Amino acid sequence: MHQEWNRIDALINSAGPYHRVSLLHETLEGWHSMFDNNLHPVFYLTRAVIPIMKERKWGRIVSFSMANAEQLIAQPQLTAHYLSKVGLLALSRSYAKLIAPDGITINCVSPGFIDSGSAPNEELDRMVKFIPAGYVGTVDDAVSAVRFLLSEEARYVNGANIQLSGAWGV
Hints:
The chain is 42% helix and 15% strand. The chain is an alpha/beta fold.
């Protein structure tokens, strides 16, 4: 992209995989997989695009965390995934402080229950009663949040985490 257009305007670090397994039964491979797929690529890709964005004094980076990552609560059935998403928030905020003077923003979108086709409908139906808004979010909700963060209207939003959970993750 950079070679063809001589610029990179945005990087979106999309949601990575997760697995539910008790921390007492987590394997070394499973543990490493969560960090290798959810946190490390964000570091590598962000690090790669920053110099290119600095040249233009403009850029937008958006990463996906998870709705309750800021709560720092016990997650005994998905500990590795949860910690990788908590780390992603801290990483993004650290980058934000360093790259803000260069006109680059980095923010997170933290979805709760979104009907993206990845979770069984029965699980989503069961979770609705825990979502204060009373419904499961849609892919369009996530797209709208990302679209805003990529826009010039969000130029002063940097190091933020947008909860996309109908108040479930708050």
